[in-house]
Please model this.
Amino acid sequence: MLSKHNVGIILFVAVWAVLAAMFGYADLTISRAVADPEAGWARVFTAFGEHPAMLLAWAAASLAVRLLRSPGLAWRLLQAACAAVAAAIGAAAVLIAAGRWFGIAPSPALIAVSLALSAAVSWIAQMLLRRLPDEQLEPYRAAVWATLAVIAGELLLVHLLKLAWGRVRFRDLLPDASNFAKWYAPQRVSGHRSFPSAHAANAWTLLCLLMYVPERRKSWSLAALVLAAGWGLATAYSRIVSGAHYASDVLFGSCLTISLFYAAWRFGGWTSRPLRFGPKRSRLLKTR
Model:
């Protein structure tokens, strides 16, 4: 008899396959029907749709700095690397928002200000985290590393696929759409980067919030799931409306992150997490 996990995987793959087949046939038709580059709401998600991944990565890196307190040069270097990553991610979030929403081009001065602001916020976060006892933070150790692994994994896979697939975006098609390519026909390295959608992949990283919710807080888990699904679906649809992606692009970007999250959730030890503080430490993700 199939377990509920196996049933869930089968249903997920089946829905993914059916939608992929549908979009392989109807991608261009869907984009022509819904694309509206002037839609203001879509511009909001263009500017901020990817920020959940950056904020989660910043928070996880900040927690990693606090949790890495073992003596030794290697641990100190890893702690410094996590601190640098947190500062860089925070600066990137500021720069991306400034560029996409306010139209401010990156400059040495803006980069310096962004790094300084991010470093200051990261320092404040460390001061606040130091007020919390080790036993309250320790149960989240596995969630921290899993969050960083999910985000790093989806970023790496998405951008490698973008480079290899070379699919032309809907808004960059020729008037006769003669350069349109279906999702299953990679064009190799061409400078075009439509497939898959990084916005959709990054938006769904909000699922990682579930790793931090104590088991007894069912309402919190539901709220986190609704938030992740709502933001993920809205961001994905906005990319079709803006003309930046096809339906298949956002499908594969979304499913890639969902798959990575499920792998971390299923094999990372959260199915029996403690009631009070959150997920138990996974044997696969121990750092000491």
In short: The radius of gyration is 20 Å. Residues 36-272 form one domain.
